[in-house]
Amino acid sequence: MCGIVGYIGRQPAKKILIDGLRELEYRGYDSAGIAILQDSGFSTFKALGKLINLEKKSTSFETKGFSVGIGHTRWATHGKPTELNAHPHMGENSYVVHNGIIENYQELKNELQSDGVTFISQTDTEVIVHLFEHYLKNALEAFDAFKMMLSRIEGAFAILLVTTTKKNQIFFAKSGSPMILGINSEDEKFFGSSDAALIGKCENVIYLEDGDYGYLDEKDILLYNKDDKRQHLTFTSLPTSKLSAQKEGFRFFMEKEIYEQHDVISDTLIGRLSDEKIIFDELDDNFLDGINDITFSSCGTSYHSALTASYLFERYAKIKTSVEFASEFRYRSPLLNSSTLFVVISQSGETADTLETLKMAKDAGLKTLVICNVDNSSMVRLADYTILARAGIEKGVASTKAFATQVVVLWMLSLYIASKRKSLDTKEIAKEIKILREVPSKTIVNDELHERIHRLSKRYLHGHGFFFIGRDVFFPLALEGALKLKEISYLHAEGYPSGEMKHGPIALADPELFTIALLPKNMLYDKSKSNVEELSARDATICAISPVNFDKADDFIQISNTQHYMLEFFEMMVVVQLLSMEISIRLGNDVDMPRNLAKSVTVE
Ligand code: AGP
Fold first, then answer.
1. Ligand 1 centroid from CA 598, angstroms
2. pLDDT of residue 451
3. Closest CA to 268 of 439, 471, 409
4. Mean predicted lDDT score pLDDT of the chain
5. CATH (one of 3.40.50.720, 3.40.50.10490, 3.40.20.10, 3.40.50.2020) for 445-586
6. b/e for 34-65, b at 16 or more Cβ within 10 A?
7. For the chain, what are the domain ranges?
8. Closest of 128, 135, 131, 134 to residue 157, by C-alpha
């Protein structure tokens, strides 16, 4: 979820670019940079960490008169957060900034390196500027070279490129990552990854569509669509409030983050799936040497993704797996041995309890892996191996897309290990990979479904409590649904294994006890159904979530008919996230910053 800005005009460009990047800070980043081209040539600055570091580095610089400039805040996906990996990336006489992932970057990089091109970063982005210059060398016009480069790259991208070959132009392209082009009354042009970067600078904008590309100079904007047809310029006016711009039209960051799950899951998958293989560049060949079992340690929602993973690891990788609450693990003098792979899961990478258990494992000589959403966090810096979830910054305290991407990474990791341990053959892995590729489409929020959940939520605003129940991986999903509801509605809720209800909890069954029953068709449906019937027979109020109609439920939320329980898992995940959010909204709570909670619990 990097941030991109661009400017062409006669105002002080450095200030415009850095102010624009500041408005994009909400997208999260670990480094930033700008490149400004004037007659005298390029001036470029990059810095790790916050924008203040970039400002310090460029204090003595400011433009006078006409200039073109681009800027970027980087959220590391390929390559650690370092200055070398920070954007803009340079060629011999050009700079580029990019948001997205170039899927075929390795192939392009090899091709360019065999042509003698030297790369200085570990990023996928750097291939863009070298490929552009490669075509420029063949005496192509700059725009032709830009188009040739675009025809070679695959993946998601929003690109701004400037070059001394055309000092008064900015080249742009958009496919899969957001890019907005703005113009002010002095005919100056601006680019931004979201409205927030443009509000207050220009009044009229064009929201570029996928496949749009072109270039602009002080006078003209040449915009082409995916069919290479020159586009008529149709401007719309910008929203005025920055905060609503950061929420990109959603009511809450949590809502925005639920809606962007399908996008970020696509990012999580990019570069990690071939037709028959899971690819983790982050893991080396001796990752599993000497490993006989796995221990997960995490908290809260991250504990729920770990519990989900335990089912997948034992089912697919046939490896003994245990799951620990970090806050318990750290005080119970656990037995630790070096044949255990110790895996911590954390959105923030800073949770005190989880971090402490990672230190314990390191001190005891265990091999450690962190599944994390924040590169350069404490856990990432400490663990032997890191796999990034690539969810982008998660601002809602109630975790949603971080959970979704953690489960996707863990599912892939279970298959990766299954392949290494030969507990699944290539055909079985290929089948699972096909299903994995369907997950993004299963997490697209269906407006009708959202509206149905909104209407239905009015019935669940009281009562003496909720049970969320499920079996197998739907038990940790039930725990997660219950946590979401508790966190943002302040109503009491418990997640329970469906089969456990008869061992006590069913004593609570009455019309005021609301049970959210997860009834997947592809996992123990009949068993779960009879558990729910036991509750319904005792007059509990049942809301069933299932692809199969369930006539004994008071409410029924239908999900689509699929052939794999994990696709049902992700569809039901979206339902329980929306249900908790809609109930919380009806209760008038602060969905994004619920009482008593912090986004990252860095204290014990
Ligand atoms: C989840 O919605 C909560 N915000 C909380 O349980 C969170 O998952 C927990 O504090 C762990 O945080 P981490 O993933 O950043 O380690």
1. 9
2. 96
3. 409
4. 93
5. 3.40.50.10490
6. bbbbbeeebbbbbbbeebebbbebbeeeebee
7. 3-246, 254-442, 445-586
8. 128
Three-state secondary structure call for residue 184:
coil
Instruction: Identify whether the C-beta of residue 580 lies closer than 8 Å to the C-beta of residue 481.
Output: yes
What is the CATH code of the structural domain delimited by 254-442? 3.40.50.10490
Q: Cα separation of 255 and 546, whole Å?
A: 23
In this structure, the strands spanning 189-192 and 3-9 are antiparallel
Take atom 9 of ligand 1 and give the residue whose Cα is closest.
Answer: 300
Ligand 1 atom closest to the CA of 398, numbered from 1 = 2
Write out the catalytic residue numbers. 2, 599
State the pTM of this model: 0.77
Percent of the chain with pLDDT over 90: 82
Domain 3-246 and domain 445-586, same fold? Reply is: no
> What architecture is the 3-246 domain classified under in CATH?
4-Layer Sandwich (3.60)
Atom 3 in ligand 1: residue holding the nearest Cα:
398
Binding site membership of 351 for ligand 1 (Cβ less than 6 Å): yes
- Specify the residue for token string 């036991």: 534
Helix (H, G, I), strand (E, B) or coil at 333: coil
**Rounded Cα–Cα distance for residues 23 and 19 (Å):** 7
Please choose from 327, 330, 348, 604 the residue to mutate so as to test ligand 1's pocket, defined by most ligand atoms within 8 A of CB. 348
Q: Are strands 555-558 and 541-546 parallel, antiparallel or unpaired?
A: parallel
How far, in Å, are 100, 276, 376 from residue 122 at the CA level? 15, 26, 15
Please write the tens of the pLDDT for every residue from 211-250.
999 999 999 999 999 999 999 999 988 876 666 667 878 9
The C-alpha torsion from 497 through 448 and 404 to 482, rounded to 10°, is -30
Retrieve residue 274's tokens: 């071939």
Residue 244's pLDDT is what? 65
Instruction: Output the pLDDT for position 480.
Output: 98
Q: Give the distance, in angstroms, between the CA of residue 187 and the centroid of all CA atoms in the same chain.
A: 36
For residue 372, count other CB atoms closer than 10 A to its CB: 28
Residue 601 Cβ < 6 Å to ligand 1: yes
Average pLDDT over residues 29-57: 94
